[in-house]
Amino acid sequence: MEKNTSHDHDHNHGDQSTNHNHNDCIESALATAETLCVEQGQRLTKVRRRALELIWESHRPLGAYQLLAKLAEEGFNSAPPTVYRALDFLLSAGLIHKVESMNAYLGCVHADKEHKGYFLICDDCHNVMEFDYQDIHAALIEKAAQQGFELRAETIELTGLCSACKSHPTGANV
């Protein structure tokens, strides 16, 4: 059975016709983080919690130094190791993903379940959509095994134009 779920991290942010509430996403992500930390015997420290909130605020990938600047503005320790430790924790807990081609971090919409995240990245507005398509993962493992290769990590990032940018070819969505 195919499983294909996707989530638009931008939620048409600039479109006033949608009723999207960023606070709902942030609250849901924090509730999931709290639950996962308890289950994993980990602590969601103030820095980790705020880093996760900041990553979820815009629904767009956030670079480590952007995150560092925002945390420093709020009076948190502004040393890069502090931010990288928080990011490493959030990554290992499955609460965020790293979008390799952008060297940035994105909140994981499927943090409460085991999955592989794949990404559609808009070249114009830089919106990133995560989708979970387990058939891709299974096919990659099978093809690698046929070559005698043990797959340990995978990153799939597809670039192109999102539907909003396709309908506004002048770049008005940037």
Name the features:
alpha+beta; Arc Repressor Mutant, subunit A; Dna Ligase, domain 1; 2 domains; four-stranded mixed sheet; 6 helices; globular; Transcriptional repressor
Structure, explained:
Belongs to the Fur family. 42% of the residues lie in helices and 17% in strands. The protein is α+β, with helices and mostly antiparallel strands and 174 residues long. The protein has two domains: 99 residues, Orthogonal Bundle (Arc Repressor Mutant, subunit A); 60 residues, Ferric-uptake regulator, C-terminal dimerisarion domain (Dna Ligase, domain 1), CATH 3.30.1490.190. The N terminus is likely disordered.
Output the CATH topology of the largest domain. Arc Repressor Mutant, subunit A
CATH superfamily of the largest domain: Winged helix-like DNA-binding domain superfamily/Winged helix DNA-binding domain
Low-confidence parts, pLDDT < 50 over ≥5 residues? Answer: 1-18
The helix count comes to 6
In CATH, what is the class of the largest domain? Answer: Mainly Alpha
CATH architecture of the largest domain: Orthogonal Bundle
Q: Give the amount of beta strand, in percent.
A: 15-25%
Count of DSSP strands: 7
Distance, first to last CA = 37 Å
Region (Disordered): 1-21
InterPro entries: FUR (IPR002481), Fur_C (IPR043135), WH-like_DNA-bd_sf (IPR036388), WH_DNA-bd_sf (IPR036390)
Protein name: Transcriptional repressor
Biased composition (Basic and acidic residues): 1-14
